[in-house]
Amino acid sequence: MSQHPSTGRRRPPSLRDVAEIAGVSIKTVSNVVNDYPYVRDTTREKVREAILQVGYRPQVAAQQLRTGASKMVTLAVPSLTFSYFSDLAQEFIDEAQLRGQTVVLHSISGGREAERTVLEGFNRVLGDGVIFNPLQLEEKLFARMERTSQPTVFIGEHLPEALPQGSDYVRIDNVSAAFDQTSHLITTGRRRIAFIGRIDTEQGAQPHSSGSLRRDGYLAALREHGLPADGGDVQAVADWRRPDGFAGAEALFARRPDVDGIVCGNDDLAIGVLATLRRLGRRVPEDVAVIGYDDTPDAPFTSPPLTTISPDKHALAATALDLLAERIQGYDGPPRVVDTPYTLVIRDSTTAADAGPQHSPTTPSAPDLEELPR
Amino acid sequence: MSQHPSTGRRRPPSLRDVAEIAGVSIKTVSNVVNDYPYVRDTTREKVREAILQVGYRPQVAAQQLRTGASKMVTLAVPSLTFSYFSDLAQEFIDEAQLRGQTVVLHSISGGREAERTVLEGFNRVLGDGVIFNPLQLEEKLFARMERTSQPTVFIGEHLPEALPQGSDYVRIDNVSAAFDQTSHLITTGRRRIAFIGRIDTEQGAQPHSSGSLRRDGYLAALREHGLPADGGDVQAVADWRRPDGFAGAEALFARRPDVDGIVCGNDDLAIGVLATLRRLGRRVPEDVAVIGYDDTPDAPFTSPPLTTISPDKHALAATALDLLAERIQGYDGPPRVVDTPYTLVIRDSTTAADAGPQHSPTTPSAPDLEELPR
DNA sequence: AGCCTGTTCTACAACGTTGCAAACAGCTTT
DNA sequence: AAAGCTGTTTGCAACGTTGTAGAACAGGCT
Q1: Torsion sign, CA atoms B50, B55, B61, B63
Q2: B25: nearest nucleotide, CA–C1' criterion
Q3: Was domain A174-306+347-360 assigned CATH 3.40.50.2300?
Q4: Third-level CATH fold of A1-56
């Protein structure tokens, strides 16, 4: 440990320090560290000892400068205070660790402006690439951008399929998931099934909004099972939040009082819908089945616990890191869009508690917080 | 963008590229980037343009190599799937961002072995320092270690006060928090107050275990208020989990049936205690008041919602980063141990719902998941 | 004209690492 | 004895950046 020039900071030991002690050249130490085979056993031993003695650890900064790679990837997500994102981040960290990579975490709570900064590369070159889950980026920003400033994999919803050069996109197949949502209701005996979600039809519409995709999946499932799919049971709402679900269900039942199943575009809408059903005195699931989408942490705790679509975060993380790794390795083909799996988590809102086997891969169906084991 | 030597990877633009275009020296570009004042306005403009043109962003790796600092700090926590740690991580990220620092996140699920790797510096030099929350490190490992391999700030519980050179420790003042827990029960009218917690008395005892510290705070509060503090109401349990709280409360009430308040060493114990009270038919808080410690995410959802000690994560993060910054700046004094604040979150388990004003800084007192706003 | 002052710009070196190619030692083969 | 192996070690250069020191220049003073 010596001093750094100019700053009086303590400096970690370098190859040079080891070399001096072991009485060999710097390059030989480097060779030992990198398991280069043509090193005599006796020298290797000598060097190893010296390494332990000074506590040498390779400096990523120098390696990156020399080789152009740091084995660090940046993960940019909205906020870890949403358990969806913290769980996702954990998956990325674990998965990255397996690949010998380290995760630099950025959280983007600064809105559109902050997201643009991420897209433009953080104003400094740090790791080898980025995994980026934008929330608010406008499509036109993508369109304007020829190529990303570094290898990038986008994740999440609301992204266009036309991506900048140098990037890929991992997403949930919204159409297929909504198809499965709907099929689940059909196969459990529902016949009058409505859909509720935010579907942008105005001029600012995102053609690939998750709302439209999910509606399409819903309609496809109806058709597949020979049920009427004229769109008459599609209830468009203004936003994705609980009050929208509440109001949407009110409107829906005013129009179609005989609905016996509701496919919700997300869990928050479903929670609003449940509130309306309670108000109307309809029993769930006996009178009406309700299914959500997202498997938010609240989903197991609603009454009744909510059946929902649960994205496979593990697969998502693994796929994203794979694609990014290829980009980092030098692949520079056109942007790829990859769908990852999801699971249907069956809870009580679609099946009576005693109505046959339930399987819930991620969370217990009706956890009792008071129960003892932990 | 040119190619990197040897690897065929795309290389980000450098000062040299900018300099060439602007027709100045590399150093001048560097001066512009770093706002060095003695640059003619016209040159500055020329350089700025060139920077935009090639999309130049400084490379942290080279800066770190040159200056010895990267403005990256590593945060090593057990797992982001515990909401305590994901919230904490978010605080660190935000706070670091304010200071112009970037957080490298490591999660240590590999047990003792993994924690030792962290302590030894990850086998590679990455950022400028580490914030480390160990769970399982043995005291003797600390004792054996003369000095940390890089600036380090420990956070969390169970750490000895004798730390390696080059490190500091930020913690919650367990004694004072337990004092406040107990005082809260006393000032709300309880007189027969018990304590329940895991207190290691065997040979392997950690002298600074949170159990003993919290018990000490409890006893001090009793004494302060002139209540008998002979330790007769201390119920030691085997572990910190729910069943221990359950069994502990059973044993406690067998010995002391007239207890009207229970200070719990953590929230999980408290949840076990609540179960026992339910079984015994005692009402909470009318017959017995219960107070926890940690403010786990479950705390607001127990029945009744649990009054508890909530660590101030924001202050914790800020303090830890401050201490680390000083270490990075070159401070190399003896290890410092700093206590951070906490708040007493009053919920229903100590005060009847209609019994006067309640304030709950962190979470709503009895959140209804079904309520609409979100 | 010569000198000084202050501003603007640049050359150089070094941070720690690794790919390349050359040097070297100890052999066996011609 | 020279040439040719094989295995082992090393010197050199470059990655991008910035602190130091000094060069080049302009303007004003004696």
Answers
A1: positive
A2: C10
A3: yes
A4: 434 Repressor (Amino-terminal Domain) (1.10.260)
